From TrEMBL:
NCBIfam families in UniProt: sensory_box (TIGR00229)
Group of enzyme by EC: transferase
Single GO MF annotation: phosphorelay sensor kinase activity
InterPro entries: BphY/WalK/GraS-like (IPR050351), GAF (IPR003018), GAF-like_dom_sf (IPR029016), HATPase_C_sf (IPR036890), HATPase_dom (IPR003594), His_kinase_dom (IPR005467), HisK_dim/P_dom (IPR003661), HisK_dim/P_sf (IPR036097)
Cellular component, GO, one term: plasma membrane
Catalytic activity: ATP + protein L-histidine = ADP + protein N-phospho-L-histidine
Record's keyword terms, sorted: Kinase, Membrane, Phosphoprotein, Transferase, Two-component regulatory system
Pfam families found in the cross-reference section: GAF, HATPase_c, HisKA, PAS_4
Protein name: histidine kinase
Protein family membership: In the N-terminal section; belongs to the phytochrome family.
């Protein structure tokens, strides 16, 4: 249909509601059929500083341009003669044509005036337009024409983009910093969806994690949509076919400005509508070439025209989330490898412990039977062997006899012998001092077992062989063979030493006696030191009771003496306990019991009981615990003793009116605990000695109060026992003890 501008305008005037053509794009109000009015309207159409265009709606639903005013020609560079009768695809780029066609379809479908913003390219230059689109009806009430007025808002959008770009950079920076800091993946994705929803002002942002069967679960959600949360929802999209999977794997995205105008399959529309979605963007989260999940933004209030900058931002965030997932998986792999390494190291430690125990047994005992029987038992247990045997050659190495055996079999082989000549392929290698392993079939019910044999020899001769069997065909590992060979060498030493047993018997008994005395030392010391103090304390209490009955306690001096006696008994008892604790720590005979503690909850329970005491002494107490401290694997008994000793010191030596502070914080990757007090200062030349047992700072120093002299020495030993360090700083009338774990 060819219509000149005047005819188009006149028809619009007759069919439309009253309006005014102004800078914002409205249509004229007072319209008349008189020629003068038409000429006036045509004058406005040609001169108004707003872009006006006319689009015909064909009966088949297609769209063709009718005309445009001079302002539109000037702004876009398109002449009306080049536009008339053409479809959007013949005038615009494929992407722009699809976008404007979607808006035209929406206007026809809604049967009302719509307003929208869009970015279009004319002559290769992108520009932003705010458009009002009004439908016109014919006498049959069919919408046959659309009148559009547009205003160029490129300058406004560019100004907005400057602020938005800064916000976008801040958003990307915040996510990157979390990833770099090693924040837990779930925390990263939870905070990311919140940031995206706030930035895009959308209604819902979710992260959808794929399962093996390509169903999935929503693992993160930020929403303002009324109704049930989708978090944790398992979704099986029946329309999610292989082509979508391959498309997402290649980095393809889905951008829907209106789910009802996007040509979706009905099942997809139903699924999105069930979540109240009107428009959405779906961006894949890729792990290298694998499709891990989807980052999905929902707009539920109305259809939405997504901007390219928004889509690019979501792509960048999806890439960062892929990096976070990969980093988490790598960390999990590292933890797995670490666990495997620790497991292997534990095996090695167990093997080394066996060697150490056997070596100690050889050194501590010259009884050949005892040593070698221990060898077979320990070796069989640590290597999980079904049997372990030691056989000896006769003098001419023609017969081998099993002398010692540890076995789970009902048919032991001890004292059995075999001729060397009957097994030349085995003993030829063993007699050349080389270990040997092979599979052999044994038992009434034939069963294949793995057998390992290592020769026992020294510089003088070959004594025999150490045999192990396991009910498996898996070969012994190289380090297991090395362990057995090392044990075989220790056996050779034990056999040699057994010959000197009688001559060294007296010396061995003396060593056993010394060892026994050493083991009983701490137990005896505890009993011998505690008993007299307990007796003195009980005697003093009894004497005080008798004297009280006799009225002697009314003499002023007697209660003072008893007070001194009780205080000194208590002081001596504490000294003995501290001395025993210090002795145990130096002997390192008590293993640590490691427990994971949260300092946020544990530390206040230790510090708070001191608040009343500090208040009574007119001192001040403060407790500071940093947020997000990691849990601490520690022996809780030792740590509590350390904190209480330092707090007792601080309470004792802090003058009235001064402050005591306890702090827990993270320094680099190290957890730190500090106890400080003001009003006291230790001379710098004394700092290196305050952890020595029984050391006291000279009397002219403010730290001149009494005590056992073991408190700080115990703290130092317990800190070392916990594999930690302690430092002390004293300056500017303030002293601080800092423990680093």
């Amino acid at each position: 249909m060819n219509i000149n501008p005047l005819e188009s305008t006149a028809e619009l005037i007759q069919a439309s509601p009253s309006g005014a053509i102004a800078s914002g794009g409205a249509l004229p109000i007072a319209l008349h059929e008189e020629s003068t009015s038409e000429q006036l309207l045509l004058s406005i159409y040609n001169s108004v500083e707003a872009s006006i265009f006319v689009v015909d709606v064909l009966e088949n639903g297609d769209f063709r341009y009718v005309g445009l005013n001079p302002t539109h020609e000037r702004w876009t560079g398109i002449r009306k003669d080049d536009l008339r009768g053409k479809t959007p695809e013949e005038v615009l780029s494929p992407v722009d044509a699809a976008n404007v066609r979607q808006h035209y379809s929406e206007c026809v479908r809604c049967s009302k005036t719509i307003c929208y913003e869009q970015c279009l390219q004319f002559q290769g230059i992108p520009s932003w337009w705010k458009t009002t689109l009004t439908p016109l009806r014919n006498s049959n009430s069919r919408i046959y024409r659309l009148i559009g007025t547009s205003k160029n808002i490129t300058a406004i959008k560019q100004a907005e983009a400057g602020g938005i770009d800064a916000q976008r950079e801040e958003l990307l920076k915040a996510i990157a910093e979390q990833i770099h800091s090693g924040v837990e993946l779930q925390i990263i994705i939870n905070q990311t969806v919140k940031r995206i929803r706030s930035f895009l002002e959308s209604d819902r942002v979710i992260i959808y994690r794929f399962q093996v069967d390509w169903s999935g679960i929503i693992i993160a959600e930020s929403t303002i949509v009324a109704g049930t949360s989708l978090l944790g929802t398992n979704i099986k999209d029946t329309c999610f076919s292989e082509k979508y999977i391959e498309r997402y794997k290649r980095g393809g995205i889905q951008v829907l400005e209106d789910i009802y105008a996007a040509g979706l399959h009905p099942c997809q529309i139903d699924l999105l509508a069930s979540f109240q979605v009107k428009a959405n963007v779906v961006v894949p989260i890729l792990l290298k070439q694998d499709l891990w999940g989807l980052l999905i933004v929902h707009h539920c209030r109305s259809p939405r025209q997504w901007q390219q900058t928004e889509i690019d931002l979501l792509k960048q965030i999806a890439t960062q989330l892929g990096i976070a997932v990969q980093q988490t998986q790598l960390q999990q792999q590292i933890e797995t490898l670490k666990a495997q390494f620790n497991s292997q190291m534990q095996l090695i430690f167990n093997y080394e412990a066996v060697v150490r125990r056997i070596t100690e047994k050889i050194r501590d005992s010259l009884d050949e039977t005892q040593v070698l029987q221990t060898v077979t038992q320990e070796l069989a247990k640590v290597l999980k062997a079904d049997s372990c045997q030691i056989e000896f050659y006769n003098n001419c190495c023609s017969v081998a006899t099993v002398a010692y055996e540890y076995t789970n079999s009902k048919f032991p082989c001890q004292e059995s012998s075999r001729q060397i000549a009957d097994f030349p392929e085995i003993y030829q290698q063993l007699l050349q001092k080389e270990p040997l392993q092979f599979v052999q079939v044994v038992g009434v019910n034939p069963q294949a077992v793995m057998t390992l044999a290592c020769p026992i020899f020294d510089a003088q001769k070959i004594w025999g062989n150490l045999w192990l069997t396991r009910q498996t065909q898996e070969a012994f590992a190289e380090f297991e063979i090395q362990l057995v060979q090392q044990i075989a060498n220790e056996c050779a030493i034990a056999i040699c030493q057994a010959r000197l047993y009688k001559a060294a018997q007296a010396q061995v008994k003396e060593l056993e006696k010394l060892k026994h005395l050493k083991n009983d030392f701490l137990r005896t010391l505890s009993h011998e030191l505690r008993t007299p103090i307990t007796s003195i304390s009980l005697a003093a209490q009894t004497l005080e009771s008798v004297l009280q009955q006799e009225g002697v306690l009314e003499i002023e001096l007697v209660p003072q003496l008893f007070g001194i006696l009780e205080n000194e008994c208590e002081r001596e008892s504490k000294l003995i306990n501290d001395l025993l604790t210090l002795t145990y720590l130096e002997a390192d005979i008590e293993p640590m019991t490691l427990i994971a503690i949260d300092l946020q909850t544990w530390l206040p329970s230790i510090v708070e009981p001191y608040r009343e005491r500090i208040y009574c002494q007119q001192q001040q107490l403060s407790l500071s615990i940093a947020k997000e401290l990691p849990s601490l694997q520690i022996d809780i008994t030792d740590l509590e003793r350390i904190i209480t000793e330092l707090l007792n010191n601080a309470c004792k030596y802090t003058p009235g009116g001064e402050a005591i502070a306890v702090s827990a914080y993270l320094k680099a990757d190290t957890v730190c605990l500090s106890v400080s007090n003001t009003g006291v200062e230790i001379p710098s030349d004394e700092l290196s000695r305050i952890f020595d047992p029984f050391y006291r700072i000279p009397k002219n120093d403010p730290w001149k109060y009494g005590g056992t002299g073991l408190g700080l020495a115990l703290v130092k030993k317990m800190v070392k026992h916990l594999k930690a360090t302690i430092d002390v700083e004293s300056a500017d009338n303030k002293t601080t003890f800092t423990i680093q774990f």
